[in-house]
Amino acid sequence: QVQLAESGGGSVQAGGSLRLSCAVAGSNDTRYCVGWFRQAPGKERDLVASLLIGGNNIFYSVSVQGRFTISQDSAKNTVNLQMNNLEPNDTGMYYCAARLRSVSWHPCSSVLGQQESNYWGRGTQVTISS
Predict the structure, then answer these.
(1) 123 and 95 in contact (C-beta within 8 Å)?
(2) Cα 122 to Cα 95: distance, rounded to the nearest angstrom
(3) In the 8-state DSSP scheme, what is residue 74?
(4) Cα angle: 67, vertex 70, 75; to 5 degrees
């Protein structure tokens, strides 16, 4: 059982930056994949970036490579998403998701891709204006 809580969303102009944070709590098992999804109006919810708690296994979607950085802060028990050079197409609801990785060789991007099995936060809105 995992509880997730997102923060850091807001409204900024294109070219600006935001830093999202996902607080992770509720489990002593550190073998969790944690990632960020986003959903724009009228579109499907897609994985933006992910990592393995206590490890690496980092993934980025093609649309955010070179602009976003996912990281974990063990002292604060958070997973962060630094978003730079934001574009209007980055607008959407950003959700933190987590799922236990029971098989060590499964990449976190694939584990989280089975979205119906994930734990979810409530989301935080990101709006980028031109």
Answers:
(1) yes
(2) 7
(3) T
(4) 145
Phi, psi dihedrals of residue 89, rounded to the nearest 5°: -70, -10
Q: What is the DSSP letter of 88?
A: G
For 7, the token pair is 């923060």
What pLDDT is recorded for position 115? 93
State how far the Cα of 45 lies from the Cα of 52, in Å rounded to an integer: 20
Q: Which of 13, 15, 35 is nearest to 84 (CA)?
A: 15
Using DSSP's 3-state secondary structure scheme, residue 126 falls into: strand
Q: Using alpha carbons, select from 2, 49, 11, 4 the residue that is nearest to residue 125.
A: 11
Q: How far apart are CA 43 and CA 38, in angstroms?
A: 9
Encode pLDDT of 61-118 as tens digits: 999 999 999 999 988 889 999 999 999 999 999 999 999 988 888 999 999 999 999 9
24 and 18 Cβ atoms separated by less than 8 Å: no
pLDDT at residue 28, as a whole number: 66
